[in-house]
Amino acid sequence: MAKIKIRVEKETVEVCGKKGELIADLVLGSGFFMERPCAGRGSCGKCRVIARGALSKPGPAELKFISKKNFKAGLRLACQARVMGEAEISLPTGAVVTDKIFSGAYPVESLKGPFGIAVDLGTTTVAAFLVTLRDGIIHKGNAVLNQQTGFGAEVISRMEAACQGRSKDLKRLGRESIEKAISGLGLNRGQLKEIKRAVVVGNSAMHHLLLGLPVESLMKLPFQPIDRKDRKINTLVFGTGIEVWVPPLIGGFVGSDALSCLIYLGFATRKKPFAAVDLGTNGEVMVTDGKEILVASTAAGPAFEGVNIDCGMRAGRGAITSARRNEKSQTRESAPLKIELEVIGGGKAKGIAGSGLLSLVNLFRKEGKIDATGRMRGGKIFLNRQVYLSQSDVREVQKAKGAIRAAMEVLLRRLNLKADDLDELVLTGSFGARIEVGDALELGLTPALSRDRIKVFANAAGMGCGMMLKRESFEFARDLARKAEHVELYADPDFIDRFIENMRF
Ligand code: FES
């Protein structure tokens, strides 16, 4: 056993490490948190730390992502490098502080309970919303990174980990993420005691992992949850005392987060054809013809949340959220392209957020730097010295767009609708709210509808979840979950063809 110091900013903890232990495992066990987007496969290069002391030699994965110069400066991949004796590890602040406060957050000190909390347990982001139960008003929201990302950015790696005996850890991390999101709402001690009820929604995998249910059935054909029923428990967050309501799942990977969107967007009462897309790590597509409601889930969105993107990041300070041609300095058609970036907080761009990614791909496509098949000349376009858009980033956008459009087309066809029959289409999700409708339309993420028929709503799942804090709405949700039909895309012979077709720009 050797002494290992782990440091984040001014905070340091000391843990004992076995010879050959992975840095990432030591960090996870230290109480600090770090993301492992590719579940430690060494394929994303995002678990960088500065490490000094007795360490293993760098393997091929580290050499692929870390230059000789940076390696000399101590940069290592936490999921690859091992401690061989005493060592000191510093985590970059960004690996830990990824929380964000929703815009439109109001001071809460003067609010009086009883309170309800609506929790949208997303694969990547866990959002908590504070609701006063007497009037159902949502006062504030706070989001944190789902700490289960330590077991991988997407649900498959996490479910694999659960099957390999880590289900208790995943359950704990899910619960801790919820508690962290609630703590960040800024309630004082007295107010915290006034939290009486919480509703937690999420996709089927998040639901099963949080409740500690077996996930094997979600990983093999026909990919169904083992238990879809709603439940009311009072031991899920902050020990006991808060009654936590978990609404039912719809089917397949379509969970209660999609159900929340259906409620908030009024699917049950729509008389005209209507559709919505919840853009998250999983993209849920929902369509009604005014009678039936169909819902499908696609593995669409890690790209939109900055995962699997070389310079991807969430929409925090320094993230590019949109890009356009700088017309002022572009006096001649033939002049080299000058672009203007919109960066959160102003200043130098540190990475690319989901909406920025769509905007950049759309801009470079229009400028002829990316062709219709998605091929990018030169493989990389640098936006400053560190931040660039790569060929593989463009491929991720193509996959996400292909999946969402194909799902939309399959659902429309099943209801005998054409895209143009849609009265309205809503884009939602934490990313969906920031998206420029023009980019979505021009890239073909949405069908070619007139702009006024496409609306953008922030976090419909969280809002619908807030509505379910009311007993009657919760009962209503139960009926709606039975009414909504889950469409298994993998079983639709048309889906793959449409997916491939829709990958083109
Ligand atoms: S390279 Fe370490 S988590 Fe992806």
How is the topology of this model organized?
Elements lengths: L1 E7 L2 E7 L3 E2 H8 L17 E8 L4 H6 L2 H5 L2 E3 L4 E10 L1 H4 L3 E2 L13 E7 L3 E8 L4 E9 L9 H29 L5 H5 L1 E8 L1 H8 L4 H4 L11 E3 L9 E4 L9 H9 L9 E5 L4 E6 L4 E6 L20 E7 L13 E5 L7 E2 L1 H13 L13 E3 L5 E3 H24 L9 E5 L8 H7 L10 E3 L3 H8 L3 H13 L1 E2 L8 H8 L3
Parallel strand pairs: 1-6, 8-11, 11-13, 14-22, 16-24, 17-19, 22-23
Antiparallel strand pairs: 1-2, 3-6, 4-5, 4-6, 7-10, 8-9, 9-10, 12-13, 14-15, 15-16, 17-18, 20-21
Helix pairs in contact: 5-7, 9-13, 9-14, 10-12, 11-15
This protein binds FE2/S2 (inorganic) cluster.
The site of FE2/S2 (inorganic) cluster has 12 residues, from loops.
Structure description:
The chain has 505 residues and is an alpha/beta fold. The chain has four domains: 2-96, Beta-grasp domain (Ubiquitin-like (UB roll)); 100-246, Domain of unknown function (DUF4445) (Nucleotidyltransferase, domain 5, 2-Layer Sandwich), CATH 3.30.420; 258-301 and 396-502, Nucleotidyltransferase, domain 5; 307-393, no CATH class. Strand 1 (2-8) and strand 2 form a beta hairpin. The protein is built from 15 helices and 24 strands. The protein binds FE2/S2 (inorganic) cluster.
CATH homologous superfamily assignment of the largest domain: ATPase, nucleotide binding domain
Termini distance? 55 Å
CATH architectural grouping of the largest domain:
2-Layer Sandwich
Q: Please indicate the count of domains.
A: 4
Main sheet record = 7 strands, mixed
Average pLDDT rating:
88
**Ligand types:** FE2/S2 (inorganic) cluster
Any idea of the CATH topology of the largest domain? Nucleotidyltransferase, domain 5
> What class, by secondary structure content?
alpha/beta
**Which spans have pLDDT < 50 for at least 5 consecutive residues?**
94-105
